[in-house]
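Per-residue structure
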Amino acid sequence: MSVPYQVYDLKQQRAGATVVVTLKGNAANVRLMTSSAFSAYKAGRNFRAIQGLVKKSPVRLRIPNGGHWYLVVDLVGLGGRVSSSAHVEPPPLPALRSAPAAPLSMIRHAPPAVGSATESVQQVWDVFISHASEDKETVAAPLAQHLQDLGVTVWLDSLELKIGDSLRRKIDEGLANSRFGVVVFSRPFLAKGWTQYELDGLVTRQVDGEQNLLPIWHDITRDEIKAASPSLVEKFALLTAQFGIEDIARQIADVVKEQNEDSLADF
């Protein structure tokens, strides 16, 4: 092999997609890794990957979660030469469940209720973004824009609050009617009362199984998070030091859309 490794930038992929790798020549090491792990691999640092020695191909590797992925084929610890090819197969569609036919006796036609139907419809958001005001311009606002571009509905104070609104009431509405809580943890976030109020609500809803908490760590260390709340460091977080805001938005959108698809499959 003329280069130390062959690399395939798989770009943004959804959970459940399958990478199919074909080797020609000797056996080789095949490694499937995230973008941050690939950076560590190139730098010679420790990294985590789905990897192993492949002696017979094609081999199929399943992508465990949405994000930016790389495939690396190398001959570290081996001899000879090898060439490779790879392609990605999209994840299968969720199983379609057919509803049983209802007997005619069960069909009812009722006249519409008096008044506007929209008055009883409650707005539901995919994502509630909790953040400190110091992180709005650098993280929260661009994250919200990227998520909206990806088709994700977002509750962000600057998008929902209007003059005269009750801040507490609007926050409670957003907390209660969002499927995911994205929390931008930073030093200012941990120092503010309103952010702690939002965090308490998000944690309560997660414990009750009503919402999923998706943490982002921005300019803050694990020790600082642990000092504030030891339970928070156990949840996998995206670091702005490792991922760009657009990449973070794509990963969040993948999680949101995957749950939405699962919900449709259960309907």
